[in-house]
Design goal:
single chain, 405 residues, alpha+beta, Beta-lactamase, 2 domains, 5-stranded antiparallel beta sheet, 37% helix, elongated
Length: 405
């Protein structure tokens, strides 16, 4: 029996441990922080923002050229793609990677965005900044305000548009995943970072841009996004990929080499696709109701203002419930999320007609009568039990007295 119970306990423990998606992916493959070369890393669901893996996610580090993700989405959303930008001397002689813009060259903002995000042109970044904000310093201020307002970053401060080293230019893997998630919702941004090759016909340079992001050529389902390097930041990489209805974003920062950075992102994406999927849990306009007051016929109705999605372990069925404060709660394994719903005004309680016959209305004496009957039955049961107990005691005492004689 003891052997059977011991084995039962072992089996129960193993079954319980299987419901830990943060620790194990499919086939028991673990992804530990030690397996990631970068000093900081994050993996999220691009649709829901659910964090699936992290390593030192809030450590402030230098981003290098993944800064251009922020510059690019800002230029796309705030600028006019058909604007003609005149390249300044400062932009022409910007250090680092360039698309070899000529001083005084006139080029559209749209073309600069491709040079920025595909070829990581620092000269394109400076030209964009000066066009949109007159100076690169003012551009950095406006970019930081934009990121705080639109994305909600709290651990980021950019001092320039390109990511060249500045002690006051930093971010975190957590914030970068949020910036990338926001940017990838824009179809123009997605098109640019997903473009593998593009002819480039410039004043001083005629060539073909080949996207610096190797994931587009080497990883199944890759959709973007951007790599970076400086001596101080070392190698940084933000990568995204989509398979089926699931799109993931992985960030690694301060990896010792480019191959290590790509291995990090590949490991995280593989882990995510093996263990998780994005599931739609509500459609726009879906209604949920609850009682306004217990015992009252009136109800409060809540509706989903958008299609709602949740990240769930593959093969699991999420538990979806309406909370007391009008949110949609989703629980799937160890993953949980809350989604705010729109509260509609409850309908008025139905009024009884004044002309309704009095014999159809419940008389208050009827309620009191039922209460008294209930009390009477309880008193009877108490008295009966008391009498039966006393009788049993007397009989027991008599039995003991007879035995004594």
């Amino acid at each position: 029996m003891r052997f059977f119970l011991t084995n039962l306990l072992v089996v129960a423990t193993l079954l319980w441990s299987c419901d830990l998606p943060m620790a194990f992916a499919e086939e028991g493959q673990a992804l530990s922080p030690e397996a990631i070369f970068g000093e900081s890393a994050v993996l999220i669901d691009a649709t829901t923002g659910q964090v699936l893996f992290e390593k030192n996610p809030h450590e402030k580090l230098y981003p290098a050229s993944i800064t251009k993700i922020a510059t690019g989405i800002y230029a796309i959303e705030k600028g006019n793609p058909d604007d003609i930008v005149t390249v300044s001397k400062k932009a022409r002689y910007e250090e680092g990677t360039r698309v070899y813009l000529g001083e005084g060259e006139q080029v559209t903002l749209r073309k600069l965005e491709y040079g920025l995000l595909m070829h990581s042109g620092n000269d394109a970044a400076t030209a964009i900044a000066e066009h949109m904000s007159q100076t690169t310093e003012k551009f950095a201020e406006e970019l930081n305000a934009y990121l705080q307002e639109k994305v909600g970053v709290t651990e980021t401060h950019f001092a320039n548009a390109h990511g060249l080293h500045d002690p006051d230019h930093y971010t975190t893997a957590s914030d970068m995943s949020k910036i990338a998630q926001y940017a990838m919702k824009n179809p123009i941004f997605r098109e640019i970072v997903g473009t593998n090759r593009l002819p480039w016909d410039g004043k001083e340079w005629k060539s073909e841009l080949i996207n610096h992001n190797k994931l587009l050529r080497d990883y199944e389902g890759a959709t973007g996004i951007k790599n970076g390097f400086t001596d101080q930041a070392m190698h940084t990489l933000v990568g995204s990929a989509k398979r089926g209805n699931t799109e993931l974003i992985a960030v690694t920062m301060k990896a010792a080499s480019s191959p290590y950075a790509y291995k990090d992102v590949t490991k995280m994406l593989d882990y995510g696709f093996a263990g998780f999927e994005t599931r739609q849990i509500a459609t726009r306009g879906a209604a949920y109701t609850e009682s306004a007051v217990p015992g009252n016929d009136a109800v409060v109705t809540y509706t989903a203002t958008d299609d709602l999605y949740a990240t769930v372990p593959i093969g699991s069925e999420p538990l979806v419930e309406l909370t007391n404060d009008g949110q949609l709660s989703v629980q799937a394994g160890s993953l949980s999320a809350l989604y705010p719903l729109h509260r509609n005004s409850p309908p008025a309680a139905p009024q009884r007609a004044a002309e309704a016959p009095s014999n159809e209305q419940e008389h208050p004496f009827a309620r009191y009568g039922l209460m008294f009957v209930w009390l009477g039955m309880n008193l009877f049961l108490i008295a009966y039990t008391f009498r039966k107990t006393r009788r049993h005691r007397r009989m027991r005492q008599r039995s003991l007295q007879r035995r004594a004689y």
